[in-house]
Write a structure and sequence with these properties.
Elements: H1 7-22, H2 38-42, E1 72-76, H3 80-91, E2 96-104, H4 107-117, H5 122-129, H6 140-146, H7 148-156, H8 158-170, E3 174-186, E4 197-198, E5 208-209, H9 213-218, E6 223-229, H10 230-246, H11 260-267
Parallel strand pairs: 1-6
Antiparallel strand pairs: 2-3, 3-6, 4-5
Length: 272
C-alpha cells in the first residue's frame, strides 16, 4: 500500500467516515471491492472482516493496477451533505468540488428540440417522436432503419426531413451540465489550479468542476465517492422507533448472520 502511495487516500477516507460515525450519521458497512482489503477493515473504513468471509483482495488492488482503487462509501441520504460540509471545512472550500457530468442529446431529445426551435407545436413533435424506438442506444439513423413509420414520415414530409437531418447533426452533443451522483474531488491545491469551476444548476452555494471525471483523473486528481443511501436513513429511523417503543438498543453490526427467521424471509422472496 505504501509502495503504491495510497496511505494518504486511506487516511482521508477513514477520517471522514469516523467523523460521520462520531456525529451519529449512518455509514454503510462496506461497498464493493474495498471490503476485500484488510487495511480498510482495520482502518474502520469497512465493518466486514475480509479474512473471515474469504473476500478477494485482488479485486480491490493489485500491483498491475495503475489507477487509484475505488472506496465507495454509503451515508444516510438525508445527512450526506453534512459530511461534504465537514470535508470542505477540513481541507478548504477551494480544495473541494463535486464532479460535473454532461447530459448529451439522445435521438428523441434532438428530434424534439429541433422541432421546437422551428416552431412546430409540441403535441405534434411529441406524437412524431413516439415513432422513434425507445430501446437503449437508439440513434436517429437506426430509427430510420428500424421504424417503417418513422422512415415514411421522413421520406414524405419535407419539413420532418429537414428536422431529422438537423437532429442527426445535434445528436450526441452536450445538452446540459449536471452533477455526478457521488463523485467529489479533494485536491492538494486550490481547484482553480486544475480546472474551471461553477455553481451547479439550481444551486448557488455548491461548487462543481467544469471537467468531467476522466479528464480530472488524467490531471492526477483523486475522486472520492460519497453515496447517499435512503436505506440507511430508514434504518436509523427504525432503530429510533425500536428504542422509543421497546426501550431496546439494537447494534446492527452485532445482529446474527445465521438467524433462521431471516433466511425464511429470503426463501419466501419477501425482500422488498
Amino acid at each position: 500500500m505504501n509502495l503504491m502511495g495510497f496511505n494518504g487516500y486511506f487516511n482521508i477516507v477513514s477520517d471522514y467516515i469516523q467523523w460521520a460515525k462520531d456525529h451519529d450519521i449512518p455509514v454503510g458497512p462496506g461497498r464493493g471491492s474495498a471490503a476485500g482489503a484488510v487495511l480498510a477493515y482495520v482502518s474502520k473504513i469497512t465493518d466486514v472482516e475480509p479474512i473471515r468471509y474469504g473476500l478477494l483482495f485482488e479485486r480491490f488492488l493489485n500491483p498491475a493496477r495503475v489507477s487509484m482503487p475505488d472506496i465507495d462509501v454509503d451515508f444516510a441520504d438525508d445527512e450526506r451533505e453534512r459530511v461534504l460540509d465537514y470535508v470542505s471545512k477540513k481541507y478548504g472550500a477551494d480544495h473541494v468540488a463535486q464532479v460535473c457530468t454532461f447530459g448529451t442529446m439522445a435521438a428523441k431529445a434532438a428530434f424534439k428540440d429541433v422541432g421546437k426551435a422551428l416552431g412546430i407545436p409540441f403535441a405534434q413533435m411529441n406524437a412524431h417522436a413516439k415513432l422513434i424506438p425507445a430501446k437503449p442506444g437508439t440513434t436517429i439513423e437506426s430509427a430510420l432503419n428500424d421504424s417503417p413509420e418513422f422512415r415514411a414520415l421522413y421520406d414524405e414530409d419535407s419539413q420532418i426531413h429537414k428536422i431529422v437531418d438537423t437532429a442527426k447533426i445535434l445528436e450526441g452533443t452536450v445538452r446540459q451540465l449536471g452533477v455526478h451522483a457521488c463523485a467529489v474531488i479533494i485536491a492538494p491545491e486550490p481547484m482553480t489550479n486544475y480546472c474551471p469551476l461553477q455553481h451547479p444548476p439550481k444551486d448557488s452555494e455548491g461548487i462543481v468542476t467544469q471537467f468531467s471525471q476522466k479528464p480530472l483523473e488524467d490531471l492526477g486528481l483523486l475522486k472520492m465517492d460519497f453515496l447517499g443511501l435512503r436505506n440507511l436513513s430508514i434504518m436509523k429511523r427504525a432503530l429510533a422507533i425500536i428504542k422509543d417503543v421497546h426501550d431496546r438498543d439494537v447494534d446492527l453490526l452485532k445482529i446474527s448472520f445465521e438467524d433462521p427467521k431471516v433466511f425464511e424471509i429470503f426463501a419466501n422472496g419477501d425482500t422488498t
